[in-house]
Design a protein that fits this description.
Keywords: Cell outer membrane, Membrane, Signal, TonB box, Transmembrane, Transmembrane beta strand, Transport. It is found in: Cell outer membrane. It is a multi-pass membrane protein. It is globular and about 95 Å long. The chain contains 7 helices and 50 strands. The strands form 6 sheets. It has a 22-stranded antiparallel barrel. A 5-stranded mixed beta sheet has the order 9-14-15-12-13. It is mainly beta and 921 residues long.
């Protein structure tokens, strides 16, 4: 069933749903007794994801992060209680239910491996066990990375940690993982939530959350839901990344952990420190034993590194040659600060109150030395000719912050459970007064060219690498600020009905959210310095040392302090670029009201979830319109109201305790990003021809119909083999288009904007295998193998007008790799832990270079990166570790059309990390 667009207002529907929920809460409770317990290993470590079954009543529970399970209002009688956990022996016991509640206490499981006495809950095996148990018992298709698993790889942030999971890959910035793709869909098509509250995005034009902002030390786990159920907020086509914070109740005792490390990058030869700590404690409050949990986490990291780059930006004339290229050298210092404080108050067995907070700050201090070659006429490698060479500097410090707070309560009354929660998230990106470009120019009559293809090396007279011949032309300065806030409140209520035909849980709820996105930019252009009486115009007046650039020779660096001194001595108001300083300012407000109805039925080996979600959006956008012909500004506003019905049906069938079949039909929804919605409009005239560029606030949301079918087989001790087929049909695909010659722009030579297309299709296969070797009686029993492969393909049509004729061509979805894969080999004893990991993704469409010609499409080449980590436990709870990131020194390469035509080549070098961790396991 296609997501149905609806034009009615939603308040009445939501009011009815909530009214029904509250009215039914008053219904009489007809049942007998509650049964509660907790699952641990024989060292009292809590086991999340354990399966607890009462076969006679066809009831099944999965333990939470605190190891707890509960059955409410069970009929009196004698039953069997069965507990299953991967890596543990099954536990079976007799359960006698009377008229009063039972507290079973801790049920301690024993290891399924003969060679050890206890279940592995730490290290590689323990991390895999935790993740697989949660994945196995999930209602839908999910992939989980626990905090322990995040620590088994040399990953410094959430994004890099997720790249190890099946169906996920990352977009990198300067070699660091930043944005997450799910099943080949670009980051803007996936939602990121923190304990249920959608995180705000700091970047001006995007909805995607850059997960390199969030240190992995602050989290308990990350769960990626690849199927959508009605109780989940809309906002994703590929999947929802749920970041779960740590809680003191996730551990049976007081806990602390402290980590200190130092890193070294080959490119910069500088040391990078990192410190992090976690502390949790359970307290007695108000006469209640173990009722208040306090968890605190903090992290600080500074990474100094760099990269070397050569790029053309697609400036190819395939018949005549290259028109322009640039050499770039980056020096980067990135600082991350993370804080989290979480409180849990549990005054009884049925009441819970919680507070979740997060603050993360990411500062990126970047200096880019550039050498731009503008060839007078296009030429190929080995040719020489006339050119202008520009020595350029860009320097800025950009700070992104993300904060979130979630306050809520869960209450249990017999077979009724309800939850009330309020959340807020704020993100901003601040780039204060900075050097956008400081350009020094020099003309050469002959002798300028390049050699090579992937890596272009400059051919030029010696004077091109000296400072004296370059003269200051212009300095562009900028100041930008973007901010997004999201506030929400939601209420959910459910009731479980125990019947002979199985267990039926009915659930309903409502959610209201407000999102505000704003962006502001100021641009100054300083030029004509000689007319200002400034005589220091040579690069030699601003030079500061030589650039360490191994791909070629660039000559002296431009000193950023000297540039700041120059422009700060001038009156900024005289150099403001009024058009650029106003046209990119905008605000978009979104109010979303939602309600859902859902039912979950379980019997024997079956589980079915079905229901529908309704969402209504009111969007208001404001920006500026600039008429360059008349040289006047005017305000530009737009409003849009939309409603959607989003049905879903998710099912699973257990062939056995080891083998599970899953199937799902769901519908997804993603709203256009803010760059596309911005109501900015520029009207210009060039050679008596009208040209326009503008955003499109009238864009429709992207919707999708999703089909999933798969099978999983779990090993008795530890391991899994699975295969998942998926298909997505996406409607209202958005792309950039030229509307010239069409409708209101019939007389325009150019009218560039964003439009909704027709359908796009994405389909694929996920294969995953994890296996711990056993039964050899030697060192082979210490090996853990993990591999996954995702095969995807996609197609979407883009259209344009040419002399009044509508033309189209087919492209793949941007960011979609046909193949993504991970392979890791782990070796672990009580003292030593080693892991070698390989991450691979095949080429993908990075951007459509020319909508009318596929030869100019830009592709990112395939990428294979090796990472290594080694840990030595030299005392209980004390580890020394050594990591190597990018062991094979893999560069990033993108090309225009075909591989010999460089678009961008960038290399990062290896990073080495030495650290120590203290933990009170």
């Amino acid at each position: 069933m296609k997501p149905t667009k609806h034009t009615l207002s939603s308040p009445s529907l939501i009011a009815c749903a909530v009214g029904l929920a509250f009215a039914s809460l008053a219904a009489p409770v007809l049942a007998d007794a509650d049964v509660q317990g907790r699952i641990t290993d024989n060292r009292s470590n809590l086991l999340q994801g354990a399966e607890v079954i009462i076969p006679e009543l066809k009831l099944r529970r999965t333990t939470a992060a605190d190891g707890r399970f509960w059955f409410n209002q069970l009929p009196s009688g004698t039953y069997t209680l069965l507990v299953n956990y991967l890596g543990a022996m099954p536990d079976t016991r007799v359960l006698v239910v009377g008229d009063s509640a039972q507290q079973l206490g801790d049920i301690k499981l024993l290891s399924a491996t003969d060679s050890i006495e206890h279940i592995e809950v730490v290290g590689q095996s323990g991390a895999v066990s935790k993740a697989l148990n949660r994945q196995r018992n999930a209602a839908g298709i999910v992939t989980v990375a626990s905090t322990d698993e995040l620590g088994q790889f040399p990953d410094s942030n959430v994004s890099e940690a997720l790249q190890r999971l099946a169906g996920l890959s990352v977009e990198r910035d300067q070699g660091e993982g930043r944005f997450v793709r799910v099943r080949g869909l670009a980051p803007d098509y996936n939602a990121v939530t923190y304990n249920g509250t959608q995180l705000a995005a700091p970047e001006a034009g995007r909805r995607a959350v850059a997960l390199d902002v969030i240190p992995s030390d602050l989290l308990e786990s990350v769960e990626v839901s690849k199927t959508i159920t009605p109780d989940m907020p809309a906002g994703s086509l590929g999947g929802t990344v749920e970041i779960k914070s740590l809680s003191a109740f996730d551990r049976s005792n007081d806990f602390y952990s402290f980590t200190a490390e130092a890193g070294y990058n080959e490119q910069q030869s500088k040391t990078s420190p990192k410190l992090s700590g976690v502390f949790s404690k359970i307290l007695d409050v108000g006469g209640e034993t173990d009722s208040l949990g306090v968890a605190i986490a903090a992290s600080y990291a500074e990474r100094k590194f760099g990269s070397e780059n050569v790029e053309t930006g697609g400036s190819w004339d395939f018949d005549d040659g290259l028109e322009e290229f640039e050499l770039r050298d980056y020096s980067i210092s990135r600082e991350r600060i993370g804080l989290a404080l979480n409180l849990d108050y549990r005054p009884g067995n049925h009441n819970e109150y919680y507070l979740r907070t997060l603050y993360s700050e990411f500062s990126d201090d970047e200096t880019r030395q550039g050498l731009v070659v503008e060839l007078a006429a296009p030429q190929f490698a080995a040719a020489e000719g006339e050119a202008e060479i520009i020595r350029s500097l860009k320097q800025r410090k950009e700070t992104q912050t993300i904060s979130a707070v979630v306050l809520g309560t869960r209450q249990q009354h017999g077979n009724w459970q309800w939850q009330l929660e309020a959340g807020a998230s704020k993100a901003d990106e601040d780039t204060p007064f900075n050097i956008g470009a400081a350009d020094f120019e020099q003309a050469f009559a002959d002798g300028v060219g390049f050699s090579g293809s992937n890596i272009l090396r400059l051919t030029a007279p010696d004077e091109a690498r000296l400072a004296d011949g370059y003269e200051l032309n212009e300095v562009e300065m900028g100041d930008t600020y973007a901010k997004e806030t999201e506030r929400n409140i939601r209420f959910d209520i459910s009731r479980e009905l125990i019947q002979a035909a199985g267990s039926l849980t009915l659930k309903t709820g409502a959610k209201f959210s407000q999102r505000e996105k704003s962006a502001a930019e100021d641009v100054w252009l300083f030029e004509d310095f000689a007319d200002l009486g400034i005589s220091a115009l040579s690069l030699s007046d601003y030079a500061g040392g030589s650039i360490d650039y191994s791909l070629s020779t660039m000559g002296p660096a431009i000193n950023s302090s000297s540039i700041y001194q120059l422009v700060n001595a001038l009156n900024r108001d005289d150099f403001i670029d009024e058009v650029e300083s106003q046209i990119n300012d905008y605000q978009v407000d979104e109010d979303i009201s939602a309600a859902y109805l859902m039912a979950q039925w379980e019997r024997d080996n079956w589980q079915l979830i079905g229901g529908v979600r309704f969402e209504h959006e009111q969007r208001d956008a404001s920006g500026s319109r600039y008429d360059a012909i008349e040289e006047v500004f005017s305000s530009n506003t737009a409003s849009r109201s939309e409603s959607y019905w989003l049905p879903a049906l998710v099912g699973r069938y257990n062939f056995s305790e080891q083998t599970i079949v899953r199937a799902a039909f769901s519908t997804g929804l993603v709203r256009p990003n803010f760059e596309q919605l911005s109501p900015a409009f520029i009207l210009e005239e060039d050679d008596d021809e009208l040209e326009a560029a503008f955003g499109n606030p009238e864009l429709k949301a992207l919707t999708s119909n999703n089909l999933d079918l798969g099978i999983e087989h779990y090993a008795d001790k530890l391991g899994v083999v699975s295969a998942m087929l998926f298909y997505k049909q996406i409607d209202n695909f958005i792309y950039e288009a030229d509307l010239a010659g069409r409708g209101d722009y019939n007389n325009f030579a150019k009218a560039e904007t964003f439009v909704n297309g027709g359908k796009a299709d994405l389909y694929g296969l996920e294969l995953n295998a994890i296996h711990q070797l056993s039964g050899f009686g030697n060192w082979l029993d210490n090996l853990l193998l993990s591999a996954n492969l995702t095969l995807t393909d996609s197609a979407a049509d883009i259209e344009w007008f040419d002399d009044g004729s509508l033309l189209s061509r087919e492209v793949a979805l941007p960011s979609q790799s046909d193949k993504t894969a991970n392979l890791s080999l782990g070796y672990e004893t009580d003292v030593i832990s080693l892991r070698l990991a390989a991450n691979y993704k095949s080429k993908y469409l990075a951007e459509v270079g020319d909508i009318t010609d596929s030869a100019y499409d830009v592709y990112a080449d395939d990428h294979l990166q090796l990472d290594f980590t080694a840990k030595w436990t030299f005392a209980r709870g004390m580890q020394l570790y050594f990591n190597v990131v990018n062991l094979n020194d893999e560069p990033y390469y993108a090309y225009t059309g075909r591989k010999p035509y460089n678009f961008q080549y960038e290399q990062y070098g290896r990073t080495f990390v030495l650290g120590v961790q203290l933990t009170n396991w």
